[in-house]
Amino acid sequence: MFNTAIETVPPRTDGGAVNVFVETPKGSRHKYDVDDSGLFRIALELPEGVTFPFSFGFVPNTLAEDGDALDIMLVTAGSVPAGALIESRLIGVLKMENDEDGTMARNDRVVAIANMSRIFGAVETLSDMRDGFAWDVEEFFDTYNRMIERPFRIVGRGESDEAMAMLDKAEERRRAN
């Protein structure tokens, strides 16, 4: 983890909300990563006409199986700025694999809803989202991976209970390190 104030943010609030730190805002053509110093760096530019369909970030002070913080796709009605910390709830997971050094490895995306969202306020699980939502996002990831010439495969989908179990394990992994 990098050396910034985000290191002091717990994965969950006292009220049980999940803290999501936004790296790449919805609508951006650029993928941002936070480096070890806490600065945002442009990691990738998407082709003309392609933007991130939702904000992407992570849950602070977690450690996923891939060695990074738990990845989150944050659903909001509009864009929020990079660097925003958003109280959220996990609604599901999009299960995916992509090439990591010649081997296909899981690179799931946990889906969260911003708690302040009025439009998505009633959504509790991935299956509550509009018809075609998960397929649309999977198509984005397929396009994104083809663009960077990385083998990619959809493995499945999971609901909020699987997403919460992933968060629990990522918190445990972080505490153990």
From TrEMBL:
Top EC class per UniProt?
A: hydrolase
For this protein, the record's InterPro entries field holds: Pyrophosphatase, Pyrophosphatase_sf
Query: Gene3D superfamilies, alphabetically?
Result: Inorganic pyrophosphatase
Kindly state one GO CC term assigned in the UniProt record. cytoplasm
Tell me where the signal peptide lies.
Answer: none
State if Magnesium is listed as a keyword: yes
Q: What is its EC number?
A: 3.6.1.1
Cofactor(s) recorded in Swiss-Prot or TrEMBL: Mg(2+)
The Gene Ontology biological process annotation of the record reads:
phosphate-containing compound metabolic process
Spans traversing the lipid bilayer: none
Q: Which Pfam families has this protein been placed in?
A: Pyrophosphatase
Gene Ontology MF annotations: inorganic diphosphate phosphatase activity; magnesium ion binding
Alphabetically sorted, this entry's keywords are: Hydrolase, Magnesium, Metal-binding
Q: Does the keyword tRNA-binding apply?
A: no
Specify the protein name: inorganic diphosphatase
Q: Which organism is it from?
A: Roseivivax jejudonensis
